[in-house]
Amino acid sequence: MTLLHEVLRHILRPVTVPVREGVSLSEQRFGGNEPTPGGAIAPRCRLEDLGNPEFRADHGIRYPYLGGSMAKGISSVAMVEELGRAGMLGFFGAAGLPLEEVEAAVAHLGELGIPHGFNLIHSPHEPDLEAALADLYLRRGVTLIEASAFLNLTLPLVRYRVHGIRREADGRIITPHRIIAKVSREELAAKFFAPPPENFLRELVAAGDITSEQAELAARIPMAQDITAEADSGGHTDNRPAIALFPTICGVRDRQQEVHGFTQRLRVGLAGGIATPLSAAAAFSMGADWIMTGSINQACVESGTSGEVRAMLAETRQADIAMAPAADMFEMGVNVQVLKRGTMFSMRAARLYELYRLHPDMESIPAAEREKLEKTMFRGTLDEIWRETRSYFLRRDPRQVERADRDPKHRMALVFRWYLGQATHWANRGESSRKIDYQVWCGPAMGAFNEWATGSFLEQVENRRVVTVALNILFGAAVQMRIAALRCQGTPLPPEATRIVPLPLDKIKEYLSEKG
Hints:
With about 525 residues, this protein is of the alpha/beta class. It is built from 21 helices and 16 strands.
């Protein structure tokens, strides 16, 4: 480590560096806003200033850092709480959980008085479940949700957004319920960056959910002021490269701002592949108003998954991921990105979808193929699995059973979805007998983080805490921004001066407590 390396870590102090070889600490001086003759300046860089200050103020957070939701409580209450207490924003992973578990999480986090949000995932095959979750959020006073995996806007989403909308005496339109939408397609971004559809507003007025006056106000606001451009990520993803997706969504933002003339400034953050200081710095350099992480948080001790999964994730490299059929959108052929190292889930799930496409019902599957499925994947007969699945849906959504009784192909889909759904439960519970079938949502960011953490204290799973990881990424991004500023001024920097390594949390806090 060179002396310059240490100087650059004092991010709250401007530093002047002579542009010549052989830089030593004695040749540096802290303070001052102008470079010395023949030198360059690395300005101070507060973590708070990396993103959009209005976004931070609106959401009551200190740092422009969000922990994205991961379904089935993987982004747990503990994770959301830790991020909120540290001045960041986490979203509880409500998707796939019973409503009573979500309500318990709402009650707990609501009592803490810290920033937090909840996930609302699109459920095209179970619209009543999506509506029930939106109703729960409205009933329990949840004022911020992350909308994910939406293929289009839905009535429950619009109802949530416009509930309680009003005009203040000074003319301002107040929207108590906010949405941060996770989007990877420009056509969907355009819909979120536009007023709610008129047909949905008319339907809500007719149902008595809003008044005509509220509908008029709703026509003047965007469905979401904030969109997270979701690049190549774990779970639901279109595998878009961040460096191409982000400018595209920003272009949509600018056009929609001009077309609709919103008084609110539309904003865009970035997610997908962000796992190191360099990727975070790249996001902020492109103009991201905030960054969001996901896969790397699943490997932290606060996540709602099992120790077995965390250990698997800690060994993951960027090539150790694959696409596999999604349980919630199986019939539509939608895929999710999952871990393939140490599990056969992606291959087995793909085989199930292939069989679903080829056959009209389970009875048409060749006997040898069916026997193989029952022995390896289901570990029971398909008829037994159907009886279990039927009992489950009779409690959760009886209309699925009614349809399956009429349509044998739908019955086959529900049975195959049993395997996809259970594969996540097995992973989260750490059922060792089912390790070969674990479904673990994971993007390439996990491999990037592991490479960066190699040889540091963060290489050990037990040291990975969500706030420690977050502050290391933000702090390293600030250091990288200072390095970039020096390079822009023609300063030759030795390789060792530009290497950013993980630091213990107390060391980062020491740097952050310095006076500029």
